[in-house]
Predict the structure.
Amino acid sequence: MVQEERNIAAEVLKAMAHPIRLGVIEVLADGERTVTELYEELGCSQSMMSQQLKILCQQKLVAIRKEGTQKYCSLCNRDFLKLFDCMHLHLRTFLNFKD
Amino acid sequence: MVQEERNIAAEVLKAMAHPIRLGVIEVLADGERTVTELYEELGCSQSMMSQQLKILCQQKLVAIRKEGTQKYCSLCNRDFLKLFDCMHLHLRTFLNFKD
DNA sequence: CTCAGATATTATTATATTTTTATATTCAGC
DNA sequence: GCTGAATATAAAAATATAATAATATCTGAG
């Protein structure tokens, strides 16, 4: 990776590096969700969710399609779901997390 | 993942989400390096590198062993190297990055 | 003990992120 | 055109991160 790629990659990672945004990715792994469903499922405010979704969309981690008055969110790139496996391992092997 | 795990996972990701810290991980993928080697190879100041390494160590991404007056850095968890593959794909498929 | 090389810490300033609250926009249905 | 549900934006305050410069610590060699 060259310098410029690392800058962008850092931006993408930063977009994931937040509890709510990680939660969004995890929930969307299961399938499309409405904005309302997301903030209810993750227990945060509507405004909060809207702002976090914007960040995820900017990095093309989440895509949104409109349908009437609602918006449906889904993952752009399921490849990053591998990250949850690495993370699971990391939490248990390197940080002392029990099940 | 439960709430608390997401908080920790976000911390770990945040530790990776920085150009220099990503650079460190990438360089260390190739093998152990001295702190001096790292900051020369990545073109940043000694102080900068020391601070970034601290962050990587706190999240158990990098391990350090002492040998005389030098410190040798290496990766704790090579599993996260998969991330670079995902990222490579993401940069090219979703953000318009050419080779 | 002192020196020099290697690394760490501290302080500071600038900038960015997080979170909340309030307000605005959009759109389907009436 | 008005209403209400769904979503977005703006503003603000608190907190965190980034980057640099200056100084400190540690350790092996002599």
About this structure: The radius of gyration of chain B is 15 Å.
